[in-house]
């Protein structure tokens, strides 16, 4: 017994959960028949298959010796993903010119070598200006330059 | 029309001022981003994809193709100079290329890679020009049965060629297929898995998935290994290979081109597998196999030619059948669909300018790579030496703006964040994300053809076996899967992927 720490076990659990969720959610859709498949037919088949694969992987993880899952590094994940979510949430209020560099700084703190210094800050300002010029002015992406907070 | 008339259309398209400009821009940007350590062609193409949205279809696909082979060449440069392959296909290049660089032959290794890639790219381009129209003529007769069988074969092949666990490759394909279902059902208009969200009604854009899983997910994985990055750069000197070197590299380039051209058409890890196969072959035919791993020039020439040939011929199934053989081709299909073009056998007839323009531009692009990259090597070396700590926030920024520009909404950014977490966790569990993207792109097509085929046959499943073409395709798919399960082949397959680590 390898216990429940193996990669196979967790991947299997993930597949199983996703497969079952698909089947359960697809119950609200018309199944139809093999000749006239409704919107629920294909999802139910796929979900079922995934659940079976998940079960096999899960059992294999329990029985067969296998690699354990490496440590999941939470800090970079929280910071980098947090930066993207911060950008999504604050874009309308702050605008690209403020939200983008702020998100980049949040993401940058995930690096072990992060420190505040004049050169990177200057680079950040230059990069933001570059993005504003290329994407908003040049390519016409309708990103708010300054958000509602700054009356933009 | 004869092939020369077709090629003339291609020349007219490819040599128009704007198409040449965008081809050059694509090759340049692709190389510039591709040389950055830790960014492979898939991430590069996904990141730069939104830039092409405003362009006409021919120009967009020409630029994207340029980005693709530029990125691949850039990846080889990084593999040779700092031993940090950006994508699995340049892992082999790093073995002997980096050794050559350490012995002061970095310039020669880079030139070999460039010349090998150019020759292979030229040959593969000719192959596409001859074989793609033939294949598309065959495919024009395909009905829903044949298409369904063909996609099953494609998915089966991608399972077999994927490194890592077979079970997980199948699992990831299924996850991709299920994610592809999200949105409005085309036939009935029913909402599926949208959770009442208005934004999900059109389904999830594949760019969101690709940028989340490949862009953000890769950043998270790279940040873990940040401390063991080597910053020592090999010095680049003596660019031109001598006449004797040329004689040494030409045979491996020829063999690599042949291997790559054949394997590139196959779905799955075409480019990667072909570079591994080419390396193994060179080692076998060499009179001095003990030189391999210590800076053998043949060990750079063969795999580089193979992976470039494979990259070019992987366009054949994408353009003629609408079936992606690797994640980059999945992105290309997505880009074409966004441009309002459904990739498939009718593309050659309906869009001759696009098809032939792309082929001619591939050759032009390869020439540009050769002419540009050797003189510009100084710039690439500077790009490589940018510390990752400065680099990845910029990548995050490009992903943010790129994803926003898809639908001009922040909803896709939230989704991308979600897929970033998923991509990181899946990598931790040894689940390769490439089959997921293939499944995601093929999902809607697979379902549509299945439903149509079953409607025609009134629900009779044996219909897939009574049509000879579809039966043959399904048989090959079954044989592929069975071959991996057979113990003898399984052992060699595991051995083949051993070298990768």
From TrEMBL, chain A:
The keyword Membrane applies. InterPro entries: DUF1468 (IPR009936). Keywords: Membrane, Transmembrane, Transmembrane helix. The chain crosses the membrane at residues 9-29, 41-59, 79-110, 116-136. It holds the Pfam family TctB. Signal peptide: none annotated. The keyword Membrane applies. Residues 10-144 form the DUF1468 domain. This is Tripartite tricarboxylate transporter TctB family protein. It comes from Paracoccus sediminis.
UniProtKB/TrEMBL annotation, chain B:
This is TctA family transporter. Keywords: Membrane, Transmembrane, Transmembrane helix. Residues 20-438 form the DUF112 domain. The keyword Metal-binding does not apply. InterPro entries: DUF112_TM. Pfam families: TctA. Coiled coil: none annotated. The keyword Transmembrane helix applies. The chain crosses the membrane at residues 60-82, 109-135, 147-179, 200-220, 258-281, 321-341, 353-376, 388-407, 469-489. PANTHER family: TRICARBOXYLIC TRANSPORT PROTEIN (PTHR35342:SF5).
